[in-house]
Amino acid sequence: MVDPTSHPDNSESPAATDKAARDPLAILPGYTLRRAANAMMAELGALLGEVELRVSEASILLLIDGRSTMTSSLIGAALDIRSANMAPLISSLVARGLVERVPLDGKSMAIVLTEPGRAVLARVRTITQDFEQTLMLRIPPEHRDHFVPALNALWR
Amino acid sequence: MVDPTSHPDNSESPAATDKAARDPLAILPGYTLRRAANAMMAELGALLGEVELRVSEASILLLIDGRSTMTSSLIGAALDIRSANMAPLISSLVARGLVERVPLDGKSMAIVLTEPGRAVLARVRTITQDFEQTLMLRIPPEHRDHFVPALNALWR
DNA sequence: CCTTTATAGCTATTGAATATAGTCAAGTAC
DNA sequence: GTACTTGACTATATTCAATAGCTATAAAGG
């Protein structure tokens, strides 16, 4: 009959297979990167649930704070969000009274915080700073200072 | 009334606003993590386009190589994919002849590589190893060895 | 045994995030 | 002026992962 355990004769590099056997996820640092990012974003998302904002919405608030000439295309360029996707995002923030559209010229609209928007942003700042801190504290001290520089080197 | 340019008196920490002004994305390491992960996965995804596999499909092949008792639930546990999402994933790999389902007992199915699957996997290994290498080379040497350990500390 | 509970695999459906295509008006260049 | 570009937007499509629920098998307890 079929003994499922009698299958191991695969004549490939035993070293690679061995490595995979011990920690299959370690094969791909890039994959580990994705897993870590997903886990972190899920966590931050849960924290931001308190103010009912998604991560991208919170980043928009953080980004436009103190500025009066950020258009949706500028925000999109900074956060890597297509203009087609910016529109509904901003509309939802406008509908909730957190930001408003202020005409800059005939065709450009500045996205600026409203008073309620500033209040929510204050809470967002607390949440994200706490999160960032616990994030860094999870990293052993000897690796800590290398983390963000390494991350930035990857894609900038 | 509202002159959009006369808006900069926001009586918050000028330091924080300043930091945000210079590089708004650097505010959130967690956000930078997400951006980096997205960029990396897009890149790897493009490379894997050569063998018409998504990142998750390629990881499955890498994971089951040399094993004859990996069930879809085990794979899902290792890669953090729900069993509901494993089903269509595996089905597609089966349909393409890369893996096959082998009954282990009445209700468990081992997912094992076929001969063509092994051939594709060899190519996948080359691609991912190349990718992994260029990834690490982008990180300045002094940060390099700290990257993966820091990443793993975040979520394991 | 036979009933209960847990496990494995699966289907169908949903929701969120993002991408594509195209509209329209306002600005820019020649 | 005509032609081209840019900013904001609508509508739609694709992709991915999450939820709920089903069925059959296996394991555990009486």
Automatic annotation (TrEMBL), chains A, B:
Q: Which SMART domains match?
A: HTH_MARR
Report the residue ranges that make up the HTH marR-type domain in this protein.
46-144
The alphabetical list of record keywords is: DNA-binding, Transcription, Transcription regulation
**Origin: domain of life:** Bacteria
The parts of the chain that form a coiled coil are: none
Q: Which Gene3D superfamilies match?
A: Winged helix-like DNA-binding domain superfamily/Winged helix DNA-binding domain
**Entry keyword DNA-binding:** yes
Known PANTHER family for this protein? TRANSCRIPTIONAL REGULATOR, MARR (PTHR42756), TRANSCRIPTIONAL REPRESSOR OF EMRAB OPERON (PTHR42756:SF1)
Protein name in UniProt: MarR family winged helix-turn-helix transcriptional regulator
Organism for this UniProt entry: Novosphingobium organovorum
Taxonomy, top ranks, is: Bacteria, Pseudomonadati, Pseudomonadota, Alphaproteobacteria, Sphingomonadales
